[in-house]
Amino acid sequence: MAAFRETAVIACSGPMTLAALEETRDRLRDSLNAAKRIEVDCSGVTDASVCFVQLLLAAGTSAAGRGIDLHIKQPVPAALRDVLERGGFVGKVGSACDGQEFWIGEP
Predict the structure, then answer these.
(1) Cis before residue 75, ω within 30 degrees of 0?
(2) What residues does the STAS domain cover (predicted)?
(3) 15, 78, 95, 104: most buried by Cβ count inside 10 Å?
(4) How confident is the model at residue 102, as a pLDDT?
C-alpha cells in the first residue's frame, strides 16, 4: 500500500463547465486516495458553472467521510464567486450564509 502524501494541490484553470470537468474530477478522485489534505486552487478559473460547484461539494463530502481535509484556496476568483452568490452558497460581499466557510473561509 502506498503512503499518503501530506497535501495534494489541485489547480483548476480555464472554464470549469460541464464539458471541462472530467479531468478535474479524476484528479480529485486520485487525490482522495493519496493525500491527507487537499487544496483546490481555483485562481485560474475563468468561467464556472454550478456543475463545478457540485463537483467540489461532492469531493468535500467524500473527503470528510474519509477524514481528509479539503479546502478551497483563497481568494476565489470572481467567476466562481459569481456562481456561488447566484446559487446562494455565499452571500454578497459583506453578508454571510450558512456553510460559506467551505467556499470563502469565513464563519
Answers:
(1) yes
(2) 1-94
(3) 104
(4) 85
pLDDT for the residue numbered 39:
96
Which DSSP category does 88 fall into? T
Q: What is the pLDDT of residue 3?
A: 59
Q: How are beta strands 5-16 and 69-72 bridged, if at all?
A: unpaired
- CA–CA separation, 74 vs 21, rounded Å? 20
Three-state DSSP class for residue 73: coil
Contact by Cβ (8 Å): 12, 51: no
Which residues contact residue 29 at a Cβ distance below 8 angstroms, ignoring those fewer than 6 apart?
none
Note if the pTM is more than 0.85. yes
Nearest by Cα to 40 from 7, 4, 86: 7
